[in-house]
Specification:
The complex is a heterodimer. Chain A starts with 14 loop residues before the first strand and ends with a helix. Chain A is globular and about 85 Å long. Chain A is an alpha/beta fold. Chain A contains 20 helices and 22 strands. In chain B, helix 1 (29-39) packs across helix 6, helix 2 runs parallel beside helix 4 and helix 5 runs antiparallel to helix 9 (279-286). In chain B, the strands form two sheets. In chain B, strands 2-1-3-4-6-5-11-7 form an eight-stranded mixed sheet, sandwiched between helices. In chain B, strands 8-9-10 form a three-stranded antiparallel sheet. Chain B has helices spanning 29-39, 78-88, 100-106, 108-117, 162-168, 182-194, 216-219, 224-227, 279-286, 307-322, 327-331; strands spanning 50-54, 69-72, 93-99, 121-127, 173-178, 199-204, 228-230, 238-239, 245-250, 253-258, 294-301, 336-339. Chain B is α/β, with parallel strands linked by helices. In chain B, strand 8 and strand 9 (245-250) form a beta hairpin. Chain B has a domain at 7-214 and 306-313: Thiamin diphosphate (ThDP)-binding fold, Pyr/PP domains (Rossmann fold, 3-Layer(aba) Sandwich), CATH 3.40.50. The chains are: A alpha/beta, B alpha/beta. The interface between A and B is large, with 77 and 62 residues. Chain A: Residues 267-478 form the Pyruvate flavodoxin/ferredoxin oxidoreductase pyrimidine binding domain. Chain A: GO terms for molecular function: oxidoreductase activity, acting on the aldehyde or oxo group of donors.
Chain lengths: 628, 340
């Protein structure tokens, strides 16, 4: 653990310019380590006390051909002296490690912004791969920016030194740390967290450790020594952050932490059965490290097997979950139907990505809402909850488990690639403040010790049936996918019974609305416009709504975390505004549901580019609606 | 296997329930159910610790007709539910009931993986070489040329050998029996139950409606002794009504030989169910009628690490090394900072 400190050199000559917030992006080839330095910069900024929001954006290919446009990997960080909710729209600074990175990212850099380029990689060959006929660094296309050309590869080699036993390739791999060091200097970031990280990560490989350290320091000192910039920038620690102890957390990590927490709070053990799929695999990686929490991870042979194993574990009485993305959810559909029929508590995490089919594996989208809602055969209601931002995964996954065991039902938890890979500060919760999850297993036939056979389809006041994992004497019973007779659970083809059971299952899920919070809004209680959003668009939509209010517009925002059933007061709430706008990264899936449920003339603002919303485009959409 | 006192009083009828059995009259499934009810009380496992998990198909109705815990799941996926259940509670005695369509067609992948992981479950595959529940289409074990509703000109698909598949996945226990040979069936099921790890038992089962007498060569009094060979560990492979025929290895191929006329018992292939490599068992699994008598009994039975026990061992090791999971410690790991 390290505290915020800065090992800056002599602060001669350079003046600091105070900024409220800064948005930077590291961009380079997939193999350039941009995600790594992005993560380090984020951590350093968080430790320093800024609010941070990140947006990693990388190709699906592990190593797309080097130097090509398709292979560009970027990491955007927004750090601020106040509360922020998005990684930001336009860049203040861009680091371009090669021509392809420059070409794909320059449009995002604001005029007058800082552009740092590694000139060593602007070779004829790399220029050609990026589609440049001439070197853009020699032309006028970059006149509008504050351009800093650095022969980073060469400088880095010199910094690591000739005495290193590392190969030149390995040395060159350190140059991302050179770039990081330079930006640490420029934005007055503490280097300790990264130096500590390097020690931890490469501690046993002394040469690698030393090379990375030297690169980082060389980058920092290069900024200090050469008069590349007229001044440095400083973003003071955020003041409006509630007091407490913080750390940085990513969405999938928060999800994994939330799962082991749910298991602890339920005094149960977690079984996580899954099949690797982008962007959900990191949940498995995190949980596999948490075996000392008695979390059992199971990498199944396919998506269906993962779902089956999760249901099997739930049947066995454990807190069970599976994780996947859209294509996997499609494969799991039949088994989820079985969990609905057998009324077993299991959580299905869907970290959404661009679709249809294989789609855009590493890009974000919210186009699986209707799949989660309807993507099964028969009348098959499944409750749906969705996280709003990375650390919200921690809270909402526990909610998903609570609903699952309280109502004996599968629950779908929706996240997306943007939430999963995004990082933000997380106020570390007090363990005592975390809600318990109550599990009630059947103890004897019908709980009354009678000699009568166990009736697996009796119901409590919430319409949940008893959870009777195998191993309980006297509760032996048979369940399955064939329609169940009410109370006995025997197979039944009786028409009246089928109708009754379909209604019962729906009623049970509808009744969950009584156990979830009412929908809140930020902004006016009634007015001209209500923005309704869900999932990972929370930051952009809430920021846009706040900006609109700053301009004097009557705009409120409701962000839904419960999508099935909806909060009880939602219909009433929608009626209190003259217009309703539903911004979504899909073709209007929540909008369709809202219109269907509440007969409200909701408008949509929809984008399907695999990219999150810009606040500015939402502001424009709001302006457009309010002008009409 | 844990034996609890007072269990010996359990009788086959204790494992019956009051649901009406709905297989067609004369179906081979009745015999398997009867033998299972006979075997279960002999295992010394209390009823509440026994679970039957099935997929979809005629055979998969099996759990409904027992008074243990039962889960009738979805087509082909029974092994996945069984694996999850065993991870959740390794102490349960779990049976997987499947058929040739359920286990080898739609669920082929899961069958391979439950076997290669060596999850401690007992898999019983009812092989009738036909789809019964969907009313008579050919299955992955149907013979070439078999005329069915979906193959009016005869099947052109090459059939799978269930046991070759199981052995290909390096099953630690592989056996075959027949619905009508009730004594052998009971013994085989009992051995499967006693094995630690995934046990795979193929049962030749007559579908008297859609594929009647598919196994008559192995069941008819007149011919069965010549068309089947009962395996015994450490014994030579001898068969025939007069026990005058044997199997000998010619290079790496088996051949049928007549005993006497210069061929002694010692020249024959001796069965070794404990051979570390599955090669011999595989060779036996390739022997099929009419070229060869089809082997019955236990092909392979070896010790191998049990999946769910290893899962638990890793958990225990982690707890031992890192201490019982502490949420506060986890949340506070890595860099933290305090806002006043």
């Amino acid at each position: 653990m390290s505290t915020a400190s800065t090992d800056r050199g002599a602060e001669n000559e350079y003046e600091f310019e105070e900024r409220e917030s800064v948005i930077i992006r590291f961009a380079g080839d997939s193999g350039d380590g941009m995600q790594l330095v992005g993560g380090q910069f984020t951590n350093a900024s968080a430790v320093y006390g800024n609010d941070v929001s990140t947006f990693p954006d990388f190709p699906a290919e592990i190593r797309a051909p080097a130097g090509t446009l398709a292979g560009v990997s970027g990491f955007q960080i927004h750090f601020s002296n106040h509360d922020i909710k998005t990684p930001g729209d336009v860049l203040d600074a861009l680091v371009a490690m090669n021509p392809a990175a420059l070409k794909t990212n320059l449009p995002a850099l604001q005029k007058g912004g800082v552009l740092i380029c590694n000139t060593d990689s602007f070779t004829l060959n790399d220029l050609k791969k990026a589609g440049y006929a001439e070197n853009p660094l020699d032309g006028h296309g970059i006149d509008d920016y504050m351009v800093v050309k650095i022969d980073m590869t060469r400088l880095n080699r010199d910094a690591v030194g000739k005495d290193t036993p590392l190969s030149q390739r390995a040395v060159d791999r350190c140059k991302n740390f050179f770039a990081l060091g330079l930006l640490y200097w420029l934005y007055d970031r503490p280097t300790d967290p990264t130096l500590n990280w390097i020690k931890q990560k490469f501690g046993k490989m002394l040469d690698v450790c030393e090379a990375n350290e030297r690169s980082l320091r060389a980058g920092y000192n290069y900024g200090e020594t050469l008069e590349l910039f007229t001044h440095r920038y400083r973003v003071k620690p955020a003041k409006d952050t509630p007091p407490g102890k913080y750390r940085q957390i990513m969405g999938n990590q928060a999800l994994a932490y939330g799962m082991v927490t749910a298991a602890k709070m339920a005094q149960s053990e977690l079984v996580y059965a899954t099949y690797p799929i982008t962007p959900a695999s990191d949940i498995l990686h995190e949980l596999a490290k948490l075996k000392h929490f008695r979390a059992r991870t199971y990498q199944a042979e396919d998506e269906i097997a993962a779902m089956g194993a999760a249901i099997g574990a739930a049947y066995g009485g454990k807190l069970a979950a599976t994780g996947t993305s859209g294509p996997g959810l499609a494969l799991k559909a039949e088994a989820i139907g079985l969990a609905v029929m057998a009324e077993l508590p299991v959580v299905i995490v869907n970290v959404q990505r661009g679709g249809p089919s294989t789609g855009l594996p590493t890009k974000t989208e919210q186009a699986d809402l209707l799949q989660a809602m309807f993507g099964r055969n028969g009348e098959c209601p499944v409750p749906i909850v969705a996280a709003a931002h990375p650390s919200d995964c921690f809270t909402m996954i526990q909610e998903a488990f609570r609903i699952a065991v309280e109502f004996m039902t599968p629950v779908i938890f929706l996240s997306d690639g943007y939430i999963a890979n995004g990082a933000e500060p997380w106020k570390i919760p007090e363990i005592d403040g975390i809600n318990k999850i109550e599990i009630k297993y059947a103890s004897s036939p019908n709980g009354n010790g009678s000699a009568q056979a166990f009736q697996p389809y009796t119901r409590d006041e919430k319409l949940a049936r008893p959870w009777a994992p195998p191993g309980i004497p006297g509760c032996e019973h048979r369940i399955g996918g064939l329609e169940k007779e009410a109370i006995t659970g025997n197979v039944s083809y009786d028409p009246e019974n089928h109708q009754k059971m379909i209604h019962l299952r729906q009623e049970k899920v509808d009744g969950i609305a009584n156990s979830i919070p009412e929908q809140t809004v930020t902004g006016p209680e009634e007015g001209d416009l209500l923005l309704v959003s869900w999932g990972g668009t929370f930051g952009a939509v809430s920021t846009a709504a706040a900006k609109a209010r700053d301009k004097g517009q009557s705009v409120a925002h409701a962000h839904l975390k419960y999508l099935s059933p909806f909060p009880k007061n939602l219909g009433d709430l929608l009626g209190r505004y003259r217009q309703v706008l539903v911004p979504e990264l899909n073709m209007g899936q929540l909008r369709l549901l809202l219109r269907g449920h509440f007969l409200v003339d909701a408008k949509g603002y929809n984008k399907v580019k695999g990219q999150p919303f810009y606040v500015s485009e939402l502001e424009k959409a709001i302006d457009g609606l309010l002008e009409d | 296997m844990s034996t609890e006192s007072g269990l010996n009083v359990l009788k086959p009828k204790d494992f019956a329930n009051d649901l009406e059995v709905r297989w067609c009259p004369g179906c081979g499934d009745y015999s398997i159910l009867a033998q299972m009810k006979k075997v279960l009380p002999e295992l010394g496992i209390p009823k509440h610790k026994i679970v039957f998990i099935s997929g979809i198909g005629c055979s998969s109705r099996f759990p409904y007709y027992l008074s243990t815990y039962g889960f009738h799941t979805i087509h082909g996926r029974a092994p996945t539910f069984a694996t999850g259940l065993k991870i959740a509670n390794p102490e349960l005695s779990v049976w997987v009931i499947t058929g040739d369509g359920d286990g080898l067609s739609i669920g082929g992948n899961h069958l391979l993986h439950v076997i290669r992981r060596n999850v401690n479950v007992n898999i019983v595959m009812f092989n009738n070489r036909i789809y019964g529940l969907t009313k008579g289409q050919y299955s992955p074990t149907s013979r070439v040329g078999h005329k069915t509703k979906s193959t009016p000109y005869g099947s052109i698909d090459r059939p799978l050998s269930a046991l070759s598949v199981a052995l290909g996945a390096e099953a630690s226990f592989v056996a075959r029996s027949l619905d009508v040979n009730i004594k052998h069936l009971g013994e085989t099921l009992k051995r499967a139950a006693g094995h630690r790890g995934a046990s795979f038992v193929e049962v030749y089962q007559d579908c008297n409606v859609f594929n009647h007498e598919a196994f008559s060569y192995a069941t008819d009094k007149e011919v069965k002794a010549d068309n089947t060979i009962y395996l015994e560990h450490g014994k030579p492979l001898i068969f025939g009504k007069d026990r005058h025929m044997g199997i000998r290895l010619n290079g790496t191929d088996p051949e049928v030989v007549k005993l006497g006329e210069g061929v002694r018992e010692d020249d024959l292939l001796f069965h070794d169910e404990k051979a570390p490599e599955p090669s011999l068992a595989y060779l036996l699994s390739r022997m099929s009628y009419p070229e060869f008598p089809e082997p019955m009994g236990v092909f392979r039975c070896i010790d191998a690490p049990v999946y769910e026990e290893q899962v638990d061992a890793q958990v225990e090791k982690a707890v031992e090394t890192a201490g019982d999971g502490d949420l506060d410690k986890l949340f506070n790991s890595g860099d933290t900072w305090t806002v006043d």
